[in-house]
């Protein structure tokens, strides 16, 4: 339809200008042809099922929304069982249902916590029940008074040897468990983190499996107080989740419900710690942080897909001589705001795939009792979770603005996407707190290297993602050789300046900390700088993993070439954004910074004819996108128009409240005017 300026054929035209094989790009994005096929099948299965409709979700009351979530979760499970879906298929089906709910915590945290921290015997007992949904579990760690500081949790689990039981208790208001998803209304069980006390001694935080609700009528068990903590940011959005509050009043559980893989309490009440590092208690968080990084690319690519397609449809202003209006995607400002986000979506996708590999590798090593890579796994998951979620939340909001006024409508899908996504900056570790964890590692390495710089060639070399720091002698004094804008296309030139920037920032911090009266004071004083050093290090990891991805065989005409452009855009837009870091650490000159910006402009122009095809490669159904602006067919205006009429306000022509509030007001004003 061409009525009123809406031109769906516009997207067909955009697709025709693509200079690469979109199917090949789908494979590069998904990771394999098999992954494309399964994702496509599950997405279509969900999209074609009326139970999974979500177009009126933002108009539901909290109670209706929660009930709708229960219905969808139960229906999804029914389909998973009926169709005998594999674990991979079931996870994808749940992803495409796209409604946060208790199942996310059941599969995402309760089951992994038992797998990671339970003994074989405990796994045999609890996992089959969890796998069949005979019990529903959540992850109850955070308390009203303590979230980031896990060591500060107050809930107690005191061993009573006379009964061979633990007594779970919430001694203060601030010890109430507060936030756990699925806890408020749905869960029957929880893995509860509490201070273990035995023989009068406090042994710190440990995990316990606790039944909360009756399996007959779902009522809370004696001594257990449970509820939902209340409405959250945005309409629809994360309000489908029953984040909950939990208090214990001397609730007894059998001793064997303490998760005992890391440490045990004997029948007599003796505390025994096995030879595994204590930090494995945090293993579930490492697992989830890794999945959150992979999810960042999904959320970001959805927002970018909407903004790119709509920008190709939307037209504003004509040429001076009254010619047709211009697609807003042709404006250089729109491109310079949007294409770095498109490039970031691909960058996060590839770093997410790498992180999954790292996590699997570390897990295998842990099983073989090799704990050497645990700090690397912690620093990478914490840092990448922090940087990718913060950037993604900002990017979704930027995409909303890129869609102008219509982006602010719920029907654009962007307000809800933002509201669902933005707590990722807080949950599973506040992003600042997590970056500080990374900076501790960087500071230690930088301090060590500064001390041993003379013997660094013979000394113990840093490995993994901090290996570059071992190249300290070169990186502290190197000068970029870039002389033309095109020189910045060389991945080695990019890598060198990102490494030098990250290392110099870490070393500067370490030098300044060493001048402070104590390391603790120095660390506190310098913490804003340490955060920036950690960000520089994490951005280096993302850039490096993108470059490494391009060294792989990537089939499909033109696919690798497009990815090379996106990789350059990703790195150079960061260089442009953080120019102050690169200049102040002396890694590049002002002229080299200007050359990078010059190249960026050229790259945007090269991406422009491919932009729509690059978002098509994400392979999202209209159902999953949930946006009238991002429709595959580009038929935006009729859809926007139709969507408006679905609003409950439009159910009557004259609004409710007219008789009580509008009519008397209007009549009164009329009378006054006649006086
Ligand atoms: C089906 C598949 C789908 C899966 C997807 C599911 C996703 C579902 C999404 C649902 C949505 C939301 C879920 C949200 C759930 C939550 O939010 S759960 C609660 C999360 N809470 C936190 O993240 C708390 C953050 N705080 C911490 O992690 C720690 O307290 C902190 C690391 C900040 C500090 O730890 P401390 O022990 O107090 O202190 P330190 O002295 O700093 O550390 C001691 C040493 O331990 C090392 N360390 C710390 N953490 C880890 C870790 N995770 N792994 C390994 N090592 C760790 C640290 O480096 C220190 O080491 P050192 O002594 O220096 O060598
Ligand atoms: C939607 C949602 C779902 C959640 N789901 C769960 C769940 O299923 N299970 C569960 O157990 N928990 C859950 N949580 C809780 C979540 O893990 C915590 O909110 C999170 O870990 C942050 O802790 P906090 O709330 O104590 O923040 P705080 O630590 O109080 O943060 C407040 C401010 O202080 C700053 N700050 C804190 N410490 C430091 C420091 N050392 N240095 C500098 N600045 C600092 C932070 O950066 C932040 O700006 C959920 C939270 C949300 C929002």
From TrEMBL:
FAD binds at residues 142, 181. The keyword Flavoprotein applies. It is found in: Peroxisome. Residues 490-667 form the Acyl-CoA oxidase C-terminal domain. Pfam families: ACOX (PF01756), ACOX_C_alpha1 (PF22924), Acyl-CoA_ox_N (PF14749). One of its GO terms (biological process) is long-chain fatty acid metabolic process. Its main location: other. GO terms for molecular function: acyl-CoA oxidase activity; FAD binding; fatty acid binding. Its cofactor is FAD. Belongs to the acyl-CoA oxidase family. One of its GO terms (cellular component) is peroxisome. Residues 282-441 form the Acyl-CoA oxidase C-alpha1 domain. SUPFAM superfamilies: Acyl-CoA dehydrogenase C-terminal domain-like, Acyl-CoA dehydrogenase NM domain-like. It comes from Triticum turgidum subsp. durum. This is Acyl-coenzyme A oxidase. Keywords: FAD, Fatty acid metabolism, Flavoprotein, Lipid metabolism, Oxidoreductase, Peroxisome. PANTHER family: ELECTRON TRANSPORT OXIDOREDUCTASE, PEROXISOMAL ACYL-COENZYME A OXIDASE 1.
